[in-house]
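histidine kinase
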Amino acid sequence: MNLKQRFLTQNILILIGTIVITSCFGFAYVHFYNLLNESHVDGGASHAFIVVMKSDDIVYNSEDFTVLQIKEILMNLSIENNYYEYENRRYGISEENFHIQDGDNYKIITLNEIISINNYYSSFITFVFMTFLIVFIVASVIVQKQYMKNIIVPITNLTNETENLRIGELETTITDSGYGEVRELGIAIEQLRLQLKNSIYYQQRVDENRKFLISSISHDLKTPVTSIIGYIDGVLDGVADTDEKKQYYLSKAIEKTKMINTMIEDLLLYSKLDLNQMTFENEKVNIVKYLENCIEDSSEEFMRENKRILFENKLSTSYFVIIDIVKFKRVIQNILDNAKRSIETKTGQLKVILRETNTSIIIEFKDNGIGISIHDLPHVFDRFYRADTAREVKGSSGLGLAISKQIIEGLNGRIWAVSENGQGASIIISLKKVKKGK
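Structure:
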């Protein structure tokens, strides 16, 4: 119900309620008035007195009138003035004479109180009017309190909270109390506050990422760019005076250029993931076959460096996971590249172990390299964090594991590292498992 309808309905209810209550009080007034006066208003009298006289003697006197008072009554009757004032009330006088068989004459004088109908209706109308006014005021006060609670106070609060928004205070939640449109207004302002807060948050993130990218590019690209300039200058200045040296210098320049390209791609990818600007095209994938394909693609590189990669499938049956196959392939490749750099030639070995829990698929990448120190372990997923010189290998942007973490969390999974210095390291991924039919 909107405010216009609510106002109209409540005003009508106030009027009807006031009329009904006033009518009830009016009927009660008439009833008790007649009850107190022991007769109906239209009966014309409420008190009656009787005086019985035998000749001039008083036989019966219901009100204990004095002789003088009875004489005044008889005098009024004799002059045909059929009214008598008694105790500030006016009475009508009637006389009836009759005879009995013994010859005695009796006279019955009746005094009936005369009620002024005009005074009755005047008091009744005054009573009804005052009752109507009091009931209307009480009802209006009650309704006004409701208006104050559900309209005026919420609007005042919204005004204050909107003023806080204007000066940049975005942490206070906007209340959504009140009737109809007032409540909807509060909800709309709260949504506006959240959108404004998110907008400012993302703008700050964009600014931070922009500064971060600039500082990272200027710091991490300085060395390869300097190397490229040096190699090219060597060719141009004749330092490389043989074809073999020229080939070597140019190949090194190309290698450093590829390294720069990898770093820029990783920076852009990380920035998009960090700002939630990367969409995920998820699909159900057989995790066993998927890992087998990924390992097969990397096996040749491991063999070329005289290192081994092994796959251990400990699943009781085939399970599926919901992933973006392209982005998850990037995660696998980053982890494999990191592990390959950390293990030794000939003796180096990486095990990819696939197992399960009640609800999850666990993928563990366990190497027999130098491991990660307890000091460095909490930071392995930080951007541009390199634990030691053994990991500062050419071609690495320092964002591989940070990107992997962003992708895994975007797939509603978890990734963490386990290691003891000198005993190898394990990167573990947990994904929710689904069966084929689901």
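The radius of gyration is 53 Å.
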